[in-house]
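Q: I'm building a small set of examples for a reading group on sequence design. Run inverse folding on the following structure and report the sequence directly after it, with nothing in between.
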């Protein structure tokens, strides 16, 4: 046996080129076998389940093919229509006004699982019908993207809803289009007969035919006109020339023209008042806090019959892409702080978001009991400082226990609904600061073990800070979201600083920052078991009682079990 091997060794030693040629042929043959098996697996019906199992984990992200599709189509499609319009446009049967509000955590996705998408009449979306589409004049003229391997109805709906669009349409089994209004006629449902590439049980349009759904958007979904965000209808300020210093009369006024003019003037607000366009920033004179009924602003735009341009007394307001720089300057404290102020919270309760708000509102960096390189790279420059350096306005901490708490002179204590906080921290632990845990993590042993260990900590963390904290200012995450201006003003005052209302109004315009996890990607089921809920509800009652015992308001009503 040894002699033949020795002969082969000598042969290739004399002929190295043949040796490397043989290796190359071997690798090529292996690649072809692998490619062939992948093609068969993609087309074989039995593989559909494995693809479906990862759909939910991909909803919030983009593959490279998604990104290419978005960038290409964004350049060739027209600016999408607006979400704000006159009542005469909304009266058609398939374009009635979208009901807004509500928590879709449990309702959105359950309706999709195990049901044909056309049968769904509640929850996330409603099937409208099959519509004609062509490349010259799209039925839905918002953004679009393609996925020729994993497109699903849910994925298309999720991407359109995340951008605030009213309609989502699917075509050719793999193409997704978004829009605010349908600009084509409908045809028989039989013409939409192509199966979705990512789920054979559902239909995704046809050749030049769109399967269109009307989306039920959450409150967090921005109403947009192109790149501008609709802010609402507001009464004319008393001194309009001071509140909105730049204005011009525009021939054939449209939302598009006013937004473009204010963007060129580098103003963050585009305000339509009939044929006049005002540009400016939010100020105490025009704070955008007192919304009026949208019917007060109904006035047909001269340049576009389906747009509303307001009138002399009631203005339609959009936020442009121009950044309001009045709250963007941040630096370290000019002198060492005399007191250590904690920004304390249970993980997942919005501490990073609160830091972002505080830095914008005060102009000073916040510090941290820990060091997170990703946060430092995103602009939290106080992250690198030692927490006792005294150069930052407050210190992030998740610590609890008597010794750790008594190291601080005072504290802002952030509290969040434990059901939401636990899920947020679980997503962070397995998906990063703005990522999501995979379905395997939710359905595996990790989630029950996590709830068992972390739920009691949610309660003990709050109780420890209430017990050992020297001076505690309680802020509920939900209250901060609902009334950011007044809640943030109270936090700034607690930090011992003067309040600048202009800065606070600037913060409202860019409150999300870089660390807001999309609120639109939901699980297809409720991850909490009955036993989990029983235990967590009891913890909520305990914390509520501890707050009231110290003459503080209890937990918000939505925490309490029903």
């Amino acid at each position: 046996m040894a002699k033949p091997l020795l002969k082969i060794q000598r042969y290739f030693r004399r002929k190295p080129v043949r040796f490397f040629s043989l290796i190359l042929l071997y690798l090529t043959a292996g690649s072809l076998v692998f490619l062939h098996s992948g093609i068969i697996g993609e087309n074989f019906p039995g593989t559909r389940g494995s693809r479906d199992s990862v759909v939910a984990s991909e909803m919030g992200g983009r593959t490279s093919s998604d990104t290419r599709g978005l960038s290409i189509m964004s350049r060739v499609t027209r600016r999408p229509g607006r979400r704000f319009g006159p009542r005469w446009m909304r009266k058609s049967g398939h374009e009635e006004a979208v009901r807004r509000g509500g928590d879709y955590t449990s309702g959105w996705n359950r309706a999709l699982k195990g049901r044909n998408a056309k049968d769904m009449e509640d929850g996330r979306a409603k099937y409208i019908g099959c519509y004609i589409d062509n490349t010259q004049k799209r039925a839905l003229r918002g953004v679009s993207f393609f996925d020729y391997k994993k497109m699903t109805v849910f994925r298309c709906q999720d991407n359109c809803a995340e951008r605030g669009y009213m309609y989502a349409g699917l075509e050719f089994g793999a193409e997704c289009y978004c829009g605010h209004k349908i600009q084509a006629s409908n045809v028989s449902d039989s013409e939409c007969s192509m199966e979705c590439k990512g789920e054979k049980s559902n239909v995704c349009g046809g050749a030049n035919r769109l399967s269109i759904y009307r989306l039920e958007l959450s409150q967090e979904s921005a109403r947009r006109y192109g790149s501008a965000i609709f802010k609402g209808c507001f009464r004319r300020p008393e001194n309009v020339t001071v509140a909105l210093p730049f204005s011009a009369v525009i021939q054939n006024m449209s939302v598009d023209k006013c937004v473009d003019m204010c963007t060129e003037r580098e103003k963050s607000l585009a305000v339509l008042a009939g044929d006049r366009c005002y540009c400016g920033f939010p100020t105490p004179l025009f704070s955008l806090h007192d919304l009026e009924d949208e019917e007060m602003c109904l006035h047909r735009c001269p340049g576009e019959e389906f747009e509303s341009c307001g009138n002399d007394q009631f203005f339609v307001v959009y936020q442009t892409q121009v950044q309001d720089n009045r709250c963007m300057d941040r630096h370290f404290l000019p002198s060492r702080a005399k007191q250590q102020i904690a920004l304390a919270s249970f993980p997942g309760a919005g501490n990073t978001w609160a830091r972002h708000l505080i830095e914008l509102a005060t102009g000073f960096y916040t510090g941290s009991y820990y060091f997170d390189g990703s946060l430092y790279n995103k602009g939290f420059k106080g992250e690198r400082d030692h927490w006792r350096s005294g150069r930052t306005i407050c210190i992030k901490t998740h610590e609890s226990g008597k010794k750790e708490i008594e190291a601080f002179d005072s504290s802002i204590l952030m509290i969040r609904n434990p059901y939401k906080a636990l899920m947020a921290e679980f997503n962070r632990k397995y998906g990063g600061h703005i990522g999501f845990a995979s379905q395997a993590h939710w359905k595996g042993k990790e989630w029950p073990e996590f709830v068992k260990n972390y739920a009691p900590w949610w309660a003990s963390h709050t109780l420890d800070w209430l017990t050992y904290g020297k001076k505690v200012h309680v802020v509920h995450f939900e209250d901060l979201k609902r009334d950011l201006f007044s809640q943030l003003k109270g936090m700034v005052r607690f930090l011992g600083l003067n309040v600048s209302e202009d800065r606070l109004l600037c913060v409202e315009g860019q409150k999300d920052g870089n660390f807001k996890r999309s609120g639109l990607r939901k699980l297809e089921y409720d991850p909490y078991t009955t036993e989990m809920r029983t235990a967590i509800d009891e913890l909520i009652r305990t914390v509520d009682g501890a707050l009231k015992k110290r003459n503080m308001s209890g937990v918000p009503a939505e925490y309490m079990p029903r």
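The chain has a mean pLDDT of 79.
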